[in-house]
């Protein structure tokens, strides 16, 4: 492991695993994976875009380590997190003769990671998988923590399982081919870690945003490692979201409803929904007197300066009205006895979990396409 490669451990006892972050990890993946394999054979799941860009380097590295491999390329995009693609993938893995002791590799963004992890969790009642995340979002968030799943007709991530990966290889070189829109979507989840529990990190992001966008490798590694450390600590404390893990859902009840409202399409990708959702969560916190209006404005300004949407009116085209959005929010997995759970904040870096929000205040917030 060279000096530029950083390691974060997810401390989950006999299911603990390492996250490696840095350049050249896809080209060296075979060496990292080999100690995990019962036999020298893996199945790779990727999407058509990542398959063209990064699969050849992974295959070369597996060849160099004497690991046999086959790959499936699924369509790129959120609509691939579906029962139809889960069935296709499961059929393919079984057809390839993947055994219970084998390992499946997810090479791609959060869509491929979530779908592959879910398929691995049900295949022959559970096979191992490794994450090789290629988007900023998947490197800082979705590849870590074992939430896997697909979307259903009723909403976001509604069928899934907790299934931890054996290894995560976050190759920062992969980010060189990532479109800026997708980089920013991942950046929203990076900002989330500052907002929920680390004001200093948020302030570091305010100072270093341009370096991150311009591709400064040292800054990117710092941001990814800080994010993975924050997520690893929360997951180790509460793997199945009985309590504190819900903080990682800041902005997501709003964001998931907006993704559903826009048909899980390119009109609004996940990180963009989270960005608007986090701005709304801070706005609601300010209106309820938990945090200052200055903090809420500072959050919104930072997201907007990054180039992210931060208002409902930033979404092009029609949206359901406030009651329609609240109905979509009702499918959230944090609902208890029909009551929504909110992640709100007392300030930047000080988020908390509550079910005590007046429905009228929520409706008023969502009625305004342009909150002040
Ligand atoms: N499991 C979790 O804890 C968790 C956490 C956050 C988000 N998610 C899920 O992750 C998904 C979003 O993930 P995402 O933002 O990575 O989206 P994604 O997987 O759809 O990837 C975004 C786009 O970038 C392309 N792409 C990926 N890597 C590339 C690269 N290196 N170069 C060029 N193009 C590349 C993909 O083909 C795709 O078109 C959502 O479904 C969300 O619900 C899950
Ligand atoms: O890992 C978690 O826990 C998260 O909530 C991370 C989120 O960024 C992620 O989008 C997650 O998939 C949302 O989970 P869900 O339980 O609301 O579907
Ligand atoms: Zn998310």
From TrEMBL:
Q: Which GO terms describe its cellular component?
A: cytoplasm
- Residues recorded as binding NAD(+), renumbered to this chain, are 110-114, 134-135, 147, 156
Comment on bound cofactor: Binds 1 divalent metal cation per subunit. Can use either Co(2+) or Zn(2+).
Q: Where is the 3-dehydroquinate synthase N-terminal domain?
A: 72-184
| Cofactor(s) listed in the protein's UniProt record | Co(2+); Zn(2+); NAD(+)
The UniProt record lists the 3-dehydroquinate synthase C-terminal domain at: 186-335
Entry-linked InterPro entries: Dehydroquinate_synthase (IPR050071), DHQ_synth_AroB (IPR016037), DHQ_synth_fam (IPR030963), DHQS/DOIS_N (IPR030960), DHQS_C (IPR056179)
Which Enzyme Commission number(s) are on file for it?
A: 4.2.3.4
Name the chemical reaction catalysed here: 7-phospho-2-dehydro-3-deoxy-D-arabino-heptonate = 3-dehydroquinate + phosphate
Pathway info: Metabolic intermediate biosynthesis; chorismate biosynthesis; chorismate from D-erythrose 4-phosphate and phosphoenolpyruvate: step 2/7
Keywords on record: Amino-acid biosynthesis, Aromatic amino acid biosynthesis, Cobalt, Cytoplasm, Lyase, Metal-binding, NAD, Nucleotide-binding, Zinc
Q: Name one Pfam family in it.
A: DHQS_C
Q: Where does Zn(2+) bind?
A: 189, 252, 270
Q: Which GO terms describe its biological process?
A: amino acid biosynthetic process; aromatic amino acid family biosynthetic process; chorismate biosynthetic process
List the residue ranges forming a coiled coil, or say none: none
Q: List GO molecular-function terms, semicolon-separated.
A: 3-dehydroquinate synthase activity; metal ion binding; nucleotide binding
Q: What does this protein do?
A: Catalyzes the conversion of 3-deoxy-D-arabino-heptulosonate 7-phosphate (DAHP) to dehydroquinate (DHQ).
Family assignment? Belongs to the sugar phosphate cyclases superfamily. Dehydroquinate synthase family.
- Protein name as catalogued: 3-dehydroquinate synthase
Q: Which organism is it from?
A: Parvibaculum lavamentivorans (strain DS-1 / DSM 13023 / NCIMB 13966)
């Amino acid at each position: 492991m060279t000096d530029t490669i950083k390691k974060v451990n997810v401390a989950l006892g006999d299911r603990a695993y390492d996250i490696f972050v840095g350049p050249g990890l896809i080209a060296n993946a075979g060496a990292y994976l080999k100690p995990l394999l019962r036999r020298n054979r893996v199945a790779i799941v990727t999407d058509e875009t990542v398959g063209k860009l990064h699969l050849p380097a992974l295959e070369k590295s597996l060849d160099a380590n004497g690991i046999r491999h086959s790959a499936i390329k699924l369509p790129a995009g959120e609509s691939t997190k579906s029962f139809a693609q889960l069935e296709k993938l499961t059929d393919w893995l079984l057809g390839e003769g993947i055994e219970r002791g084998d390992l499946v590799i997810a090479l791609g963004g959060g869509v491929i990671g979530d779908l592959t992890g879910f398929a691995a969790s049900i295949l022959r009642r559970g096979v191992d998988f490794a994450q090789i995340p290629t988007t900023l979002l998947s490197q800082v968030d979705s590849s870590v923590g074992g939430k896997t799943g697909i979307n259903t007709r009723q909403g976001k991530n509604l069928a899934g399982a907790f299934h931890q990966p054996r290894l995560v290889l976050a190759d920062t070189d992969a980010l060189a081919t990532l479109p800026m829109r997708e980089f920013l979507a991942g950046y929203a989840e990076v900002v989330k870690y500052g907002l929920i529990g680390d004001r200093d990190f948020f302030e570091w992001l305010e100072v270093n945003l341009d370096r991150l966008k311009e591709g400064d490798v040292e800054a990117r590694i710092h941001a990814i490692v800080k994010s993975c450390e924050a997520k690893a600590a929360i997951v180790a404390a509460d793997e199945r979201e009985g309590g504190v893990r819900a903080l990682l859902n800041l902005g997501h009840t709003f964001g998931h409803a907006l993704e559903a409202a826009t048909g899980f399409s390119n009109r609004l990708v996940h990180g963009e929904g989270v960005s608007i959702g986090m701005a709304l969560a801070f706005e609601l916190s300010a209106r309820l007197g938990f945090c200052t209006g200055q903090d809420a404005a500072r959050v919104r300004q930072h997201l907007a300066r990054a180039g992210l949407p931060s208002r409902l009116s930033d979404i092009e085209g029609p949206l359901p009205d406030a009651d329609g959005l609240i109905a979509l929010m009702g499918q959230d997995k944090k609902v208890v006895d029909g009551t929504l759970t909110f992640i709100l904040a007392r300030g930047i870096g000080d988020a908390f979990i509550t079910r005590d929000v007046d429905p009228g205040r929520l409706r008023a917030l969502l009625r305004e396409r342009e909150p002040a």
